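Per-residue structure
===
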Amino acid sequence: MTTQEVLDTYGAAWNEKDEAKRRQLLEKCWADDGTFTDPQSDIAGREALVAHIAEFQAQFAGAQIVPASTGDEHHGMVRFTWRITAADGSTMLDGIDFSTLAEDGRIQKTVGFFGPPPNAK
């Protein structure tokens, strides 16, 4: 898969309600021992991510994660922006992820940030 296909599959996994289908999507795009860190989470392994996504979906019923950019890649690193939209289409949160790709092109590590960077003082 291309890096953009990996990112598209990763995004689809976040929106997939069926656990078995979500796991299949993550098997295609997420390394077995991949890690995910954001301001509220620090998890390791694909199964932990499968469960984490289910928790997100339960907490924000009807919400979707939609891409706000394509992937920007160099030296095995990629960044991309995303948006969480409510069931009515309104924006709940914008964010950015920075990911390291494994040798096989799947995501090895993701560090996410919520909202825009703080302003310089």
Observations:
- The helical segments are 3-15, 19-29, 46-59.
- The two ends are 42 Å apart (CA to CA).
